[in-house]
Amino acid sequence: MWDKLRKQVAMERQELHRLLEIHSPLVLQCATRPPGAIELSALAAMLHAFYNGIENILKRIAAEVDGRVPGGEFWHRELLEAMTKPNEARPAAISEALGERLREYLEFRHVFRHAYTFDLRWEKMSALVQGCQDTLASFEVELDAFLRAGPGASK
């Protein structure tokens, strides 16, 4: 189970790095000037995909280790919250502090899914866009610690 999880997580991590690499020229450009409408849409799609990748990893942990992914209307929030808490099958996968940071990406994804892109505002997105690399780095550090805690890990 843990070996399968580690392989799935490794593949998802590669995709997250690829996503940020593809968008890095645009992210760098927007550090010095605000994006236009099309660039803003591209960055919004990047943020959406970024959180999807994170959530895919958390879903795999829930499915493989916990034996179930939360259901219901608020399952996305419940999944994120559950990963900050240990249970009988595992330690916490991520810290509460990282969970709080990821909640901002989750909330943006919700807005992105339910709004027109012309309603998006750079002022509300810029910190998330500029923070993707650091957020991913923190996520990977905590994820590596979590995966090392599982059976069959090379400590």
Structure description:
It is a single chain. This protein is mostly helical. The protein has one domain (2-149): Four Helix Bundle (Hemerythrin (Met), subunit A). Helix content is 74%, strand content 0%. It contains five helices and no strands. It has helices at 2-29, 37-66, 75-83, 96-114, 122-149. The model has no long low-confidence stretch (mean pLDDT 95).
Radius of gyration: 16 Å
In terms of per-residue confidence, which ranges show pLDDT below 50 for 5 or more consecutive residues?
none
> Can you count the helices?
5
Give the CA-based shape: globular
Number of domains: 1
Q: What structural class should be given to the helix and strand makeup? A: mainly alpha
Question: What is the CATH architecture annotation?
Answer: Up-down Bundle
Strand content: under 5%
How helix-rich are the residues, as a percent range? over 70%
Give the N-terminus to C-terminus distance in angstroms.
17 Å
Element order, helices and strands? HHHHH
- According to CATH, what is the class? Mainly Alpha
CATH topology: Four Helix Bundle (Hemerythrin (Met), subunit A)
> What is the residue-averaged pLDDT?
95
Count of beta strands: 0
Largest sheet geometry: none
